[in-house]
Amino acid sequence: MSEQPNFSDLGNQIDLAAKLLARSTHTVVLAGAGMSKESGIRTFRGEGGLWTEHGEPPMNQFDSFTSDPHAWWERRLNEGRNDGFGRSIDGAQPNPGHFALAELERLGIVSHLITQNIDDLHRLAGQNSITEIHGNRHWLRCLDCELRWPRTQFVIDATELPPICSECGGLVKSDTVMFGEPIPATALRRCHEETALADCFLTIGTSALVYPAAQYPANALSRGVPLIDINPEPTPLTSVANVVIAGPSGKILPAVVNQIHNELDH
Ligand code: APR
Question: How many domains does the chain have?
Fold first, then answer.
């Protein structure tokens, strides 16, 4: 258990994080909704969160989909996807935190990003090695063989619902993982493999309450891998992380990257 850091000395925490990252060659990152807050997308929990305000949605989304996929697709095609949260995602752009994280990949420090976000902003910012553990809002996926398509490249015939996979005949749904839906096996395998190789673990903007995503920093910690957490609010990670930086990722990550360049130049 690390001693409780001195929150007031942000500069010192940024320096500690930069030192740990600068010497890493296989940092794995777990990103959460806080990463996209400064892109105008609300978090779910914490201050101003969607569910903090409206309460959590029904946890049986996947059951209602599988019990009547035809009705689900009919509603989806008739009502469209433009709920308020969806609209905030579709208009969003990466923020300086996304670009700083992509820079850490370019520097050979970050090897893999596990993101819980479905907004595609990491890829737009130039990140390449990504597992979207909760899916991607702009993609569709076959429930059986896990084949994925960009929505724009999949023609849905409203007279032939639900859409069926051209490869295996399985049921096609939105790639976004629904509550109660198993995380695709390929995604879980990649997260497990990358975490097993991690020599440093960085968590950004996550309440660390949802599993299996929250298991990966815990797995790394159990191997003695240093954990750095960036979050303006306390979470279950605050008391176990080696370095805790209490601030917004859109400001903290660029400051960490800047300090790493100072470390690497000396
Ligand atoms: N920078 C960094 N972190 C921030 C910022 C910011 N600017 N603003 C808020 N946060 C933090 C909050 O303090 C909170 O701890 O981001 C975290 C967001 O937590 P959640 O809303 O719970 O998001 P996340 O951890 O990604 O949730 C996991 O839960 O409901 C499911 O599928 C959903 O993927 C989501 C999963």
Answer: 1
